[in-house]
């Protein structure tokens, strides 16, 4: 069973690339972020024609998350995180799919830091941790997949110096991410590539893709019941190099059948 995460950076603008990726790789589940479209304008018909059912939590022009499942419609469990009723950002959706609890996550960027946006990022991470603890307590196989906007370690970026002032790499961001790992969640890519050097994002600016100036911010965290079934975890890196591609590459885990 392959579960992928893909920050599509505008589902309508990248729809040909998304459909191409679905056709070529056939993931069982695809968690999308930054769909940047309202609920009403989500391209459900095209995705259904590609063989996938979908649920989504849209927002016009910004944010937005979705979960796609091959051959079926995910059963929604939750949309949004509790803790800040005034938070109108569409950044979280959770569903049961093919016997696995799956969440699609688009964590706040947090720049510029310090400031209100960074404070919001840290609060959001704590809200995510609380929800993760609730999922953990259910003892279900679970995958928390998405764009976490956190570079966990120095070896997860092309240049520590270039990123040292960025919200993605601040000690507070890293500590919040590490607390989730210490709670018992497994970083799937880290488990397969402990030495680092694996990127999931390359900026459109500064010739980043040709220079391979990337970093790892797209993560799949596995509950113990999912980690026990882990076969592999990789990045579909080549899709970043295609015409009019997202600035993220799809990242995935393969789980053994239950």
UniProtKB/TrEMBL annotation:
InterPro entries: AP_endonuc_1, Endo/exonu/phosph_ase_sf, Endo/exonuclease/phosphatase, ExoIII-like
Organism classification: Bacteria, Pseudomonadati, Pseudomonadota, Alphaproteobacteria, Sphingomonadales
Source organism of this protein record: Sphingobium naphthae
A Pfam family recorded for this sequence: Exo_endo_phos
Keywords for this protein: Hydrolase, Magnesium, Metal-binding
NCBIfam families noted in UniProt: exoDNase_III, xth
UniProt family annotation: Belongs to the DNA repair enzymes AP/ExoA family.
Keyword Metal-binding part of the UniProt annotation: yes
EC number from the UniProt entry: 3.1.11.2
Start and end residues of each Endonuclease/exonuclease/phosphatase domain: 4-248
Domain of life: Bacteria
Molecular function, one GO term: double-stranded DNA 3'-5' DNA exonuclease activity
Signal peptide feature range: none
Name under which the protein is recorded: Exodeoxyribonuclease III
Cofactor: Mg(2+)
